[in-house]
Amino acid sequence: MPKIIPSLTKQGVEVVVEAGAGLGALIPDDAYVAAGASIGDPWSAEVVVKVAPPSDAEVAKLSDGQTLIGFLAPRNAENQIGALKAAGVQAFAVEAIPRISRAQVLDALSSQANVAGYKAVLLAASESTRFFPMLTTAAGTVKPATVLVLGVGVAGLQALATAKRLGGRTTGYDVRPEVADQVRSVGAQWLDLGIDAAGEGGYARELTDEEKAKQQQALEDAIKGFDVVITTALVPGRPAPRLVTAAAVEGMKPGSVIVDLAGETGGNCELTEPGQTVVKHEVTICSPLNLPATMPEHASELYSKNIAALLELMLVDGKLAPDFGDQVLADSCVTREVDA
Ligand code: NAD
């Protein structure tokens, strides 16, 4: 975003933007130039900032001493991370920034998850055959939609809040019991299935086979009562947990909607087709990929603020000098050799 450029140039940083980089967010090259950047080839810069993980061809453009920052999928793109390491590139993966209070301003996972959670509800509302709010009209009273959110991290919490604002009757479920209070704080009910799978770093752990079976059965019973189910459950480095079985979909009322935000890692619903909207048992199942890209203005604005804050942490007198004594930089640098 052009907005952050003056704060960087003030610190002595020269900003080069690839031609057309902002077009997806309706930002013309001129806006970057007016903010103090130049348009050119960013691949020769000391620091290269991207959104999506680099392609193999992009990795090949980088060499010793350069720094790369972006979503680098460090748990899934092992070959690329290996290639970056071998080339002597210092790579910082925003996914690996620790979820600690001090790092909230840098937390790109959260900023993008907020966009996804919000947009998932709008998608559900537009696919639904029913209203979200209760309506009392001369033609009769319409009951509010019942909305269940499975997996209440950042995206799930935003989905609950957005569905509530639209007038839905909301319920949240997660395997981390600490989430119950957060769910209630956005006016939703907490669905308690008695499974505690809190893992490390605030993330969930994968369930045992026995817990999975118990969870699927309990959810199958619960899901029947909802008009809309939004799923966001993820376990770092693992395929998305299967929460909604085919039988659970079959049990839903015709016209109900499932929005599965876990499509990139296989989906939380057994009948999800990642990237597609399909109708199964008269239930619409949407699994949009990269939802933040559908709201490019605010997604870009938030991401650029995250990146500016990360760069600021690495700059000393306008020079790049990351201090790996800082947990945020140590954890997010995925190409550094760490002594055992
Ligand atoms: P995530 O995207 O990794 O997962 C989404 C949710 O799915 C999580 O709440 C997880 O518990 C849940 N989940 C996983 N397996 C499940 C299953 N089998 N059934 C039901 N739910 C399941 O999560 P996230 O949004 O990235 O948040 C991860 C953590 O980071 C949370 O504890 C969040 O509060 C924390 N966080 C902290 C900060 C901060 O303090 N700086 C900022 C953002 C997030």
UniProtKB/TrEMBL annotation:
Is-annotated flag, keyword Signal? Answer: no
Q: GO molecular function, one example? A: oxidoreductase activity
The EC number(s) attached to this protein equal 7.1.1.1
Instruction: Report if keyword Translocase is assigned.
Output: yes
The family database entries (Pfam families) matched by this protein are listed as: AlaDh_PNT_C, AlaDh_PNT_N
Q: Which reactions does this protein catalyse?
A: NAD(+) + NADPH + H(+)(in) = NADH + NADP(+) + H(+)(out)
Q: Where are the transmembrane segments?
A: none
Instruction: Show where the Alanine dehydrogenase/pyridine nucleotide transhydrogenase N-terminal domain sits.
Output: 2-116
UniProt keywords, alphabetically: NAD, NADP, Nucleotide-binding, Oxidoreductase, Translocase
Provide the Alanine dehydrogenase/pyridine nucleotide transhydrogenase NAD(H)-binding domain boundaries: 125-287
Job description of the protein: The transhydrogenation between NADH and NADP is coupled to respiration and ATP hydrolysis and functions as a proton pump across the membrane.
> Under what name is this protein listed?
proton-translocating NAD(P)(+) transhydrogenase
Q: Which organism is it from?
A: Nocardia goodfellowii
